[in-house]
Design a protein that fits this description.
By secondary structure, the chain is of the alpha/beta class. It has a domain of 171 residues: 3-Layer(aba) Sandwich (Rossmann fold). It has a 7-stranded mixed sheet. Helix 5 links the parallel strand 4 and strand 5. Helix 1 packs across helix 4, helix 1 crosses helix 7 and helix 7 packs antiparallel against helix 9. It is globular, with a radius of gyration of 18 Å.
């Protein structure tokens, strides 16, 4: 597959730095489905390096991870035992009809064209199955968080200015003509990580990875944050926004 992903060059940073997702999210998925995740057939679209795929597999699901980027799926395959990696796109899922109880998309749905991707996830879902898409976003209201966002905004392309809010919260995540009820869910949580992990997470963002002066920007961030956090650890605060939809039973 010749098409390249925006994340090909930062796959290792993505694997090292990106946060996972809160346990409450997976409990909510089980509640939405009305059954445990264990034993379910799950297709994870835009699976990246396998963060959500692994968390689903750890809860007993049989997970097929679909990812476009060769470097990203290479990271996934090396670190995700029990997850089946498949190279492919959410807009042309290389799987048979009616093969999944749950289709997920973690931190990836905004890259997809709903006009193409929605019919595809509906095709692979069994009657009564569910689709869920979710996003972590960084909380930015303390002084250091606001200052970092200002530095990112000053460096990034204009199209990537809004880095402290979910990609979508308007009920239109599945497209303006989606014909089934969509339910929104919200979670708040945090993690404390090393400065190196924080910087890996930062550079894995598409708007930072694309900076022409990326190395200089990261060196400046390291210097500033080393003064702000002399013990070498940073507490990152997140919100997670999820939307779910359940297909009608047969």
């Amino acid at each position: 597959m010749a098409e390249r992903s925006k994340f090909d060059t930062v796959a290792a940073n993505y694997a090292a730095g990106r946060p996972d997702y809160p346990a409450e999210l997976y409990d909510t998925l089980a509640n939405v489905l009305g059954r445990p995740l264990a034993g379910l057939d799950v297709v994870d679209l835009g699976a990246g390096t396998g963060i959500a795929s692994r968390q689903l597999a750890e809860r007993g699901a049989r997970v097929t991870a679909v990812e476009l980027s060769g470097p990203m799926i290479g990271q996934l395959a090396a670190t995700s035992p029990g997850v089946r990696p498949v190279r492919g796109s959410a807009t042309a899922i290389p799987l048979r009809d009616d093969c999944a109880d749950l289709v997920t998309s973690a931190q990836a749905w905004h890259w997809m064209d709903p006009a193409l991707a929605v019919p595809e996830f509906r095709r692979v879902l069994r009657p009564g199955g569910a689709f869920a898409a979710w996003w972590n976003y960084t909380q930015r209201d303390s002084a250091w968080e606001v200052e970092q966002e200002e530095r990112i905004n000053a460096a990034a392309e204009p199209g990537w200015r809004q880095v402290s809010a979910p990609f979508a919260q308007d009920g239109k995540e599945l497209g303006p003509d989606f014909d089934l009820p969509v339910t929104a869910h919200a979670f708040a949580w945090e993690r404390t990580v090393s400065l190196d992990t924080h910087l890996d997470n930062l550079v894995s963002k598409s708007y930072v990875a694309a900076l022409s002066n990326r190395d200089e920007f990261l060196a400046t961030e390291r210097a500033i944050l080393s003064e702000q956090f002399p013990d070498g650890h940073v507490t990152e605060r997140f919100g997670t926004h999820m939307v779910t939809v359940v297909l009608p039973s047969a």
